[in-house]
Amino acid sequence: MAESLFSALKTEWLNRYVLTSRAKAKRHVVRYIEGFYNQRRPHSTLGYRPPQEVLNEHDSSQVAT
Questions:
Q1: For residue 65, what pLDDT band results from cuts at 50, 70 and 90?
Q2: Separation CA 56–CA 21 (nearest Å)
Q3: d(CA 1, CA 7)
Q4: What is the rounded distance in angstroms from the CA atom of residue 57 to the CA atom of residue 52?
Q5: C-alpha R_g of the chain
Q6: Rounded CA gap, 44 and 40, in Å?
Q7: How far apart, in whole angstroms, are the C-alpha atoms of residue 10 and residue 55?
């Protein structure tokens, strides 16, 4: 899983920014992971659905039972 994350990070995101400091790089990486990768990006292991959608579905099924 980590290799998949790093691959996506490099191919989908890294080449779009000029990172002038370690702190700026850290902020951008966290924003990518929390804002896009975990929220909206489809994942093949989840049936090409975003993790947030799967989590919401799981949470709603737990409340219903």
A1: low
A2: 36
A3: 10
A4: 9
A5: 15
A6: 13
A7: 25
Question: Tens digits of per-residue pLDDT, 25-62?
Answer: 899 889 888 888 777 888 888 899 988 889 889 998 88
User: CB–CB of 42/48 below 8 Å?
Assistant: yes
Domain boundaries along the sequence of the chain? 2-64
**pLDDT for 3:** 80
**What span, in angstroms and rounded, lies between the C-alpha atoms of 1 and 59?**
23
Q: What is the pLDDT of residue 64?
A: 59
Alpha-helical segments (H) within 1-65: 2-12, 22-32, 51-64
- What single DSSP character describes residue 47? T
